[in-house]
Amino acid sequence: MPLIALTGGIASGKSTIARRLAEHGAVVIDADALVRELQQPGQPVLGAIAAEFGDGVLTPSGELDRAALGAMVFGDPERLARLNGIVHPAVKAESQRRFRAALEADPDAVVVYDVPLLAEARGTGEWDRVVVAHAPADVRVARMIEHRGMTEQDARSRVARQVSDEERLALADVVIDTSGTIDDTLAQADALWRELRG
């Protein structure tokens, strides 16, 4: 079972690649979706976040108030580290459980872990391949303005808060250049699939 880490900066086209690999039959596990699941009411992670940061991070209905939590940890490295200390181990344990389940269901499965913060988390070295979706920062900023309605300042700020392209590319076994057309990106994803299945 090849275990692939798929990463890329914001608006890099990573989700397009993940969808294409899923169409080919890959089992895609989305790290962001996992985080949201683990932060649902009744989950131990949400309880631990509320215990650490107070009930002010919960909505009246008991769900996580992401904006309130974000405001609390933004620009405060110590608080952010405490939050990551709650969330990251839980995400890692759940992702490992899902990798094992995919392997048990199909020993020949290609499992793709769609993980935006691989470089920030420094990975764990368990990957058969690290695939980086890459487009220059200016291209990604233009996409965020066009497709997400962000201001240029907001878009550049989001890019600046992530690790540099150089750090991300240093992890790559495979780079998919997403700066061209969608068809170019899909063709590279198709070529990667053929290589993985070859």
CATH topology of the largest domain: Rossmann fold
Summed up, the domain count is 2
User: Topology as H/E string?
Assistant: EHEHHHHEHEHHHEH
Oligomer: single chain
Family: Belongs to the CoaE family.
Enzyme class: transferase
Protein name: Dephospho-CoA kinase
Catalytic activity: 3'-dephospho-CoA + ATP = ADP + CoA + H(+)
Describe the 3D structure.
By secondary structure, the protein is of the alpha/beta class. It has two domains: 1-26 and 110-198, Rossmann fold; 33-107, 3-Layer(aba) Sandwich (Rossmann fold). 58% of the residues lie in helices and 12% in strands. The chain is built from ten helices and five strands. It has helices at 14-24, 31-38, 44-53, 66-73, 77-105, 118-121, 137-148, 152-161, 165-170, 182-197, and strands at 3-8, 27-30, 111-114, 129-134, 174-177. Strands 2-3-1-4-5 form a five-stranded parallel β-sheet, with helices on both faces. Helix 2 crosses helix 5. The longest helix is centred in the middle third of the chain and has 29 residues, at 77-105. It is globular. The chain starts with a strand and ends with a helix. Its EC number is 2.7.1.24. InterPro entries: Depp_CoAkinase, P-loop_NTPase. This is Dephospho-CoA kinase.
Short description:
With 198 residues, this protein is α/β, with parallel strands linked by helices. The protein has helices at residues 14-24, 31-38, 44-53, 66-73, 77-105, 118-121, 137-148, 152-161, 165-170, 182-197, and strands at residues 3-8, 27-30, 111-114, 129-134, 174-177. The protein is globular, with a radius of gyration of 18 Å.
